[in-house]
Every structure is written in structure tokens, then in C-alpha cells.
Amino acid sequence: MPEILCTTDLTKASETAVLHALAHGDRLGARVSLLHVMGRGERDGADRAKAQQAIEGNLDLAGGAKARILMPEGDFMEEIAAESARGYQLLVVGTHGPQGLRQSLFGAQILKLVRRSAVPCFVVQAESPVDEELSRIVMPVAGHKDIGRLASTVELLAKAWAAEVHVFQLVRPGEQPSDELLANKLRMLETLREAGIRTVEANVPSTSFSVGFSKATVEYAQRVGAGAIAIMAHASDEYRYIADAEKERILANEARIPVICA
Predict the structure, then answer these.
(1) Which domains does the chain have, with CATH numbers?
(2) How do residues 16-38 score in pLDDT, each as one tens digit?
């Protein structure tokens, strides 16, 4: 049986992540495992019981849903990365934007985690709505050598949710896209269409001279009512020097749109 891993640090962002994980589980026919890493200050019996009660409370909020609960001890980043390698289909995780609590993932931390995860990630924020339909996914094209895992994840979720995928390209005046980017765009469109997924080829003119892509991507996703944005976890050779900051902005975008990252 396929399985989804969801991290929780017992905050509002984690509650939202649990709801998203359960929704994906329903669509994919997958079991959900909830992972809370016990820190040094919460390893005695009383604290463990309190943490489990809080996690079970999240499930009660979801209508009494069932999930496996995992509560290892150790460094939360290490434990999440290690657990993700144990045969899961997807890792759902909540991020707290630019600031957060002790175990909360924010800024460079969330980017570090999605890069270390053994499986694709679905990143949400506390205010990210649980899109009952996940009707649209925006997938910006990129010049990476291997987009296979991200493309496969988008295909998996698009099929499960009957979503339309918008293959998004930001067109800058006077700029010639790389051969790799154009080849990846064609591959994305062909692969999705062969899988029977509705696609939109979105070629959007740039309205600024910035080489960044996050602002335009999020604005487009907002405009079409996207339920998720899909990006590569690692930077491509193209614009590598700004890519990390741009990916962090998308992962913690102000529109609170969930992000598929692989």
C-alpha cells in the first residue's frame, strides 16, 4: 500500500499539513504516517503522552481520520530525512515563512529539507487552503538536466486530482531561452498530454527587468487559481547565483499556495 509521510511540530502549520496529507491519502489510496521528532526537552513520559495527544487531536479535527504516529528522538532535520527514505510516496511538510519556532521550518531550512528528502515534497503554510479539487498546478519550465522526478510527481498528483497543469514560461524581451529549457518544456507538455492530463502552455511576458522568476510565477498561479506550484528542489546552471533565494520565496510565498518540490 502506498504511504505518505507528514511531519508535525504541533503548530498551526503542521495542522494544515496533516489536512493536506490526509486529502492526498484519500486521492492516492495511501496510508498517512505522522512524524513528530521528540526534542531534548520533551523526552520524558509526560511530554511524550502530551505530544501524542496533540497529534491525535489533529486527527480529530480531520473528522477522526486514522494515521500511523511516529515519535523518534533526535535531530528533527536528520530524522525527517532518514524516515523519508523508508519507501514513502510523498512527504508533506508545513513551513512557517521567514520566522518560526524551535522545530519550525522556515527560509533556508525548508529548502534544505526538500533537498535532503528521499521523496518529493508537498510544502504548505498555516494558511494554505486545502484545495478540495487541486484543480490547477503551475509548473514553471527550467533548464535542469533531469526533471524526471518532478514531472512524475506532477503527473501522479494531476491524475489523482484530475488537475489541469499549466506549463509556465516567463518570456523576457531579447532573451533567448537555453536549449535545455526549451527541450524540457516540450518534454513536460508531451509527457503530460500522453498521460491524458489537460495542459495549458502559458508563455507570459516579463513585466520587469529582474532575472528572478518567483514573483511572476506566484502572480500567475494566483491569477489562474492554482492549488499548487511545482518546482525543482535544486538549482539549474541557469541563474544558479539567484536560484536559492527565488526558490525560498516560492516555498514561503505570500499567497500561501502549496508547493510541490522534487
Answers:
(1) 3-125 (3.40.50.620), 136-255 (3.40.50.620)
(2) 999 999 999 999 999 999 999 98
